[in-house]
From TrEMBL:
Taxonomic lineage of the native organism: unclassified sequences, metagenomes, ecological metagenomes
GO molecular function terms attached to this record: NADH dehydrogenase (ubiquinone) activity
Key word Transmembrane present: yes
Keyword Transmembrane: yes
InterPro entries with a match to the protein in the record: NADH_UbQ/plastoQ_OxRdtase_su6, Nuo/plastoQ_OxRdtase_6_NuoJ
Transmembrane segments: 31-49, 56-76
Protein name from the UniProt record: NADH-quinone oxidoreductase subunit J
Record keywords, A-Z: Membrane, Transmembrane, Transmembrane helix
PANTHER family linked: NADH-UBIQUINONE OXIDOREDUCTASE CHAIN 6 (PTHR33269:SF17)
Length: 87
């Protein structure tokens, strides 16, 4: 096998494992970190495919903007307990 094929399958398995951690995680902040990891690894796949521009856009838009928006949404959401008390 070629080295590029091995790197591809390694990245693909890491992306799947990180996506599994996003879906099955209990903490929403950890899920956002795993989602950012998925986006970064996807950018690595773009670099492997010689699409550097798409990799840069992936990092800027998804890792930078979307992850920050999700974290701000989490931080600014008012959380209440089952009894109606504020957290």
């Amino acid at each position: 096998m070629d080295l590029a094929v091995l790197v591809f399958w390694g990245l693909a398995s890491l992306i799947l494992a990180s996506a599994w951690a996003v879906v099955n995680g209990n903490d929403i902040v950890h899920a956002v970190v795993w989602l950012a990891t998925v986006f970064l690894l996807t950018a690595c796949l773009f670099i492997l495919a010689d699409a550097e521009f798409l990799a840069v856009i992936q990092v800027l838009v998804y890792v930078g903007a979307i992850s920050v928006v999700i974290i701000f949404g989490i931080m600014l959401t008012k959380r209440t307990l089952k009894g109606g008390e504020d957290v």
